[in-house]
Amino acid sequence: MIPELCILFFIVALAYSAAGFGGGSSYLAILSLPLWMVDFQLMKSTALLCNVAVVSGGVYHFYKSGHLPIKKAWQLSLVSVPLAFIGSYLPMKQATFFLLLGLALTLAAILMCYRLFFEKEEPIIPADKENGIAYGIIGGGIGLLSGMTGIGGGIYLSPVLRLGRYDTAKNIAGLSSFFILVNSIAGLCGQAAKHAIVFDVGFAGPLLLAVIAGGQIGARLSAKVLNPRWVAGATALLILYAGVQMLLK
Taking the model in full, what pTM does it have? Predict the structure, then answer.
C-alpha cells in the first residue's frame, strides 16, 4: 500500500507546489478512498503534516526568488492563524467534515476555472490601492475555514487574491505558500490541543519523504520555469476532483 501512496503523494505535491499550494485537499481525497482504510484522525493529521513539508520548501524558494512580499504575507495571516487554530479545535463529525470540505473545494476550483477560461491571458498588474484591513479580514475568514476543513487554505485564498488583483501571479503563489504553512501549523496545534492529532511514523514517514521530494521539484519549476496560467489550470482540475470526491463520500 505505501509505495502506491508514495507515488500518488509525490505527483500531487509536485503539481500543487508549482502553484504555491501544499496539496492537503488531494491528500485527504486519496486517503479517504475505501481502498486504503485510513483512520479519520490519522488522515487529517497526515494531510496537514504533508502540507507543512511541501510548503516549507516552497516558502524558501519563493522568498529566495523575490516572490514573497513579507508585509503582505503577515497582513493576510495575522488574523487567520488564531482562527485556523479555533477552526481545527472545533468538534466536527466525519460526514459534516467531508461535506464542508467538498463544497469549499468545489467552489475554489470553479473560481480558478473562471479565471483561467474567462479572463484574458495577460500579466496581473496589482491595483494601485490595496485595502490591507479588508484582505486581513478575508484571510481570517479563510483561516477559520481552513482549520475546519483540515487544509492550509491557500486554494481558497489564491482565487480571491487573483480576482482582486492583489499582486502578480508569482507573488500570489508565494503568498499562498506562506499562508498554507502558518495555517497548517495552527491547525496541527488545534488538533493537538484537543488530543486529536495522530502520527504513525511507519505510515506518515514515507509519505512525508515523497511530498518533500515532489514539493522541492514543483517549487523550483514554478519559481523559474512554468507558466502560472497552465499550472493554475492543472491544479484547478485536481482541486475539482478532490471536491467532488469529498461530496460523494
Answer: 0.90
Q: Which three cell numbers stand for residue 220?
A: 523550483
d(CA 115, CA 90): 33
pLDDT tens digit string along 102-139?
A: 998 898 888 877 766 665 555 566 665 567 889 999 99
* DSSP letter string, the chain: -HHHHHHHHHHHHHHHHTTT---HHHHHHHHTSTTT---HHHHHHHHHHHHHHHHHHHHHHHHHTT---HHHHHHHHTTHHHHHHHHHHS---HHHHHHHHHHHHHHHHHHHHHHHHHS-S------SS--HHHHHHHHHHHHHHHHHHTS-SHHHHHHHHHHTT-S-HHHHHHHHHHHHHHHHHHHHHHHHHTT-----HHHHHHHHHHHHHHHHHHHHHHHHTS-HHHHHHHHHHHHHHHHHHHHT-
